[in-house]
């Protein structure tokens, strides 16, 4: 059994407490497809119920910590203490359509002594497969008790790359198309699975070799970024710097693949 801090235990307990209801709700979605409005309302309620369960668990464990959560936004806490960053249901469109690919994402953000902040713990939990991807700064990334390492592939032509595609009301389709035009012909394949937290966890696990997407929120990416870094990979914004949250841009992979993807993206945006 791999040892980990009490925070990972708290995060795992919160995710596992919300998971059974999410699984039941997911099983009900297919029965609601007869109504145009019904499924979307139902999934919105499932999202909010999961968030309430997770927030209650996290606040019980650390009453003075703040939270940044998808539905409720910022919940104030002691500004000198860390805060939780939570996405209770990443992949709501998949959930709505009965596609079994979604996750709970929880991360811890701590203030650095010299200013700024960093992600120190992260968990991405897939309720349907019971896969728990977790990481702690300086202690590695894990899937349950198995150590994770990013892919060892070095050539883009052998690599499978994840992304997100702009959709109704979100993202710049022309910008995405120019990046895809640069990357698509160079790689073995491009996948769009619809849950950024799981995409990043899969890069950490070596299931995909790299990833790019923009217009993402911190709750989509905080845990996954730490997973990749602790699995030996790199995450940056499109310019190669570490202003991912600020610019809402993410490119990730092993050292070799990250570097090549970042250069292709930078060239496409010039």
What does this 3D model show about the protein?
InterPro entries: IMPase, Inositol_monoP_metal-BS, Inositol_monophosphatase-like, Inositol_monophosphatase_CS, Inositol_monophosphatase_SuhB. Its EC number is 3.1.3.25. It catalyses: a myo-inositol phosphate + H2O = myo-inositol + phosphate. One of its GO terms (biological process) is inositol metabolic process. Belongs to the inositol monophosphatase superfamily. The protein is α+β, with helices and mostly antiparallel strands and 270 residues long. It has 2 domains: 6-147, Fructose-1,6-Bisphosphatase, subunit A, domain 1 (Fructose-1,6-Bisphosphatase, Chain A, domain 1, 2-Layer Sandwich), CATH 3.30.540.10; 156-269, 3-Layer(aba) Sandwich (D-Maltodextrin-Binding Protein, domain 2). The chain contains 8 helices and 13 strands. It has helices spanning 6-29, 38-61, 92-96, 173-183, 196-204, 218-230, 244-247, 255-269, and strands at 66-69, 73-75, 83-90, 103-111, 117-126, 131-136, 140-143, 146-147, 160-163, 189-191, 210-214, 234-236, 249-253. The strands form 2 sheets. An 8-stranded mixed sheet has the order 2-1-3-4-5-6-7-8, sandwiched between helices. Strand 7 and strand 8 form a beta hairpin. Helix 5 runs parallel beside helix 6. It is globular, with a radius of gyration of 18 Å. The mean pLDDT is 93.
